[in-house]
Structures are given as structure tokens and as C-alpha cells.
Amino acid sequence: MQWVGYAELASAVSNAGGLGILTALTQPTPEDLRKEIRKTKSMTKYPFGVNITLLPTINPPPYTEYAQVVIDEGIRIVETAGNSPGPIIKMLKQHDTVILHKCTTIRHAASAIKLGVDFLSIDGFECAGHVGEHDITNFILLSRARQSLGVPFIASGGFADGQGLAAALALGAEGINMGTRFMCTVEAPIHNNIKQAIVDAQETDTDLVLRRWKNTSRLFRNKVTEAALKIEKESSTGEFKEVQPYVAGSRGRQVFLNGDKDYGVWTAGQVIGLIHDIPTCNELVTRIEIEAVEAMDKARKMYEPVGEGANKQGYDKLPSKL
């Protein structure tokens, strides 16, 4: 959600009944993050969080300064992701911050639990952006999380509707995390051409880029990702500098401003195949809630114990309605 997680979208999600998230590194400086937090507070009376993603970079941003702003401004929920989050998590936990950490494998989730995180976001291979290097889809990953983890978790990657929410709950999650779906809402602060490109896309319209350098990202397929992939596959040197101009984040940011989907790379999950409209956040969250209840009610009604050996114990105690 880089270049998308601004106050306009975060506040709209929270106002709709979800948990809106600001992306810290979308802001150029910690002080700019402070301003964005205060702007969000002026737009919603409900809780919202801040994402701090730690990724390998030549010139790392001042993560501790961003975290200090979060603490100073009284934000109680922080989503962390990326490499070596330990120092930031320790700093935030000293101020009783609730930590939601994003993981793409059970091994990484177990390590995060040792660091003291409160909640996990389990990211399946379907997700946008950094998918990890193990290609484990949510159907397996969520069940492994249910079997193995001792802390609550939400499901991330591939969710856009209430049927997906019901499925995630059935697999053991406490809820779902949506990125690409919220990009395609009225309040998302990106060019409408990009929203329409998501609506028009199929689930096959993404590319996995930078796998050669073990920094795999799922991106919306366009002319730039195709050029980057060609270099990645055909380069005889394997030097990252050959592909670097194509995957520059500055070009991706301009996509959301100028509306040219082929101007640079931008993240999108396979869930684009499930997105067919551009609703308000309130319309979307309300619809997902209704769909989830209907899906769970339909599933319950499909169970009918029959025969003398059927397990009828407790069935008569099930509620008639969810």
C-alpha cells in the first residue's frame, strides 16, 4: 500500500468499521508522518494503525524516528513487516503498542512470536507486493497457522468479498486484511484510471519480478514488468543494476498520480480477478459483512446428520440463525 495508505483511505476504512492503516514510509520524513496521523485523527473518531515495513535498501530510512512519532502521537496499533523487526518491536512494546506482524511462512511467524508480537497477518502467495520465496498459498498457510501458532492471526492475500472472509474464519483466522481491494474504492487516493485497470484485469494479470535476487514481488503486469522480466531472465551478469531503473519506486508512485498504468511498476494481488467495481469503503465493508453472514449460514444449513451412526451430539443446540 505504498503511496496509497494516506489519511483519506485509512480514515474511510475505519469509519466503515474496519481498521484503517497509514503507511509510514509513504511519508518522506517522520515529521510528515506526524502530520498525516493528525490529519487522520481529524477525519475519524475510530482507531487506526500505522504500518512500518523494514526492507533491504541502500539508504535505509530512520525507522526508529518513525516509530517514535507513532509513540508520541498515541497510536496503539502498529503493523510491522519485513526484515529484522526486533528492535522496532521492542521499542514499541515498551509503550504497550499492539503489534500486528506480517509473515509469509510459519517459520517467520514463530520467530515473530518470540519477539513478542500480539497478532499475526498471514500472507499467502496470492498477495500483492513481497510474496516471500516459498510460494505457499493461503489454503495451506492459514491451516498451518491454525495448527501451529499460539497467537491470533488474520488472513492476507486474495481477499475481496464476504465469501473469502467466511473461508478465512473457517480456516482459523480472526478476520482478513485487504490491500488491492481497498485500492479500488472511491476514497483511495490514486488516479481513477488505475482503479479501472484493476476492474478490467483478470487474476492472471500479475507478474512475479525480482525472483532472481530473492526479493520477489507480485506486480501488476504492464510494459515495464515485462521489460524487467526479460532482463531478469536473459541477463548474463545477473547484476541488479541492470533491472533497477525499471523497478524504481519513484516511477511507481507516478502511476498513481498520472493514471498511466504502464509508466512504472505497481503492486497488485491476484485478487484483481475478483474486483468488478469501485465502491465506497462503507459500501464495500457493509457488503462483505452481509456476504460473509450469508455464506456461513448457507454452509451451516448444508449439514444434516442422518443415519444411526451420525454425530448428532450438540446439533440440536446450534442456533437457528447466525
TrEMBL record:
Pfam families: NMO (PF03060)
CDD domains, alphabetized: NPD_like
InterPro entries the UniProt entry points to: Aldolase_TIM (IPR013785), NMO (IPR004136)
Highest taxon listed in the record's lineage: Eukaryota
Keywords for the protein's UniProt record, in alphabetical order: Flavoprotein, FMN, Oxidoreductase
PANTHER family referenced in this protein's UniProt entry, alphabetically: 2-NITROPROPANE DIOXYGENASE, DIOXYGENASE FAMILY OXIDOREDUCTASE, PUTATIVE (AFU_ORTHOLOGUE AFUA_5G09600)-RELATED
Protein name: Nitronate monooxygenase domain-containing protein
Classification of source organism: Eukaryota, Fungi, Dikarya, Ascomycota, Pezizomycotina
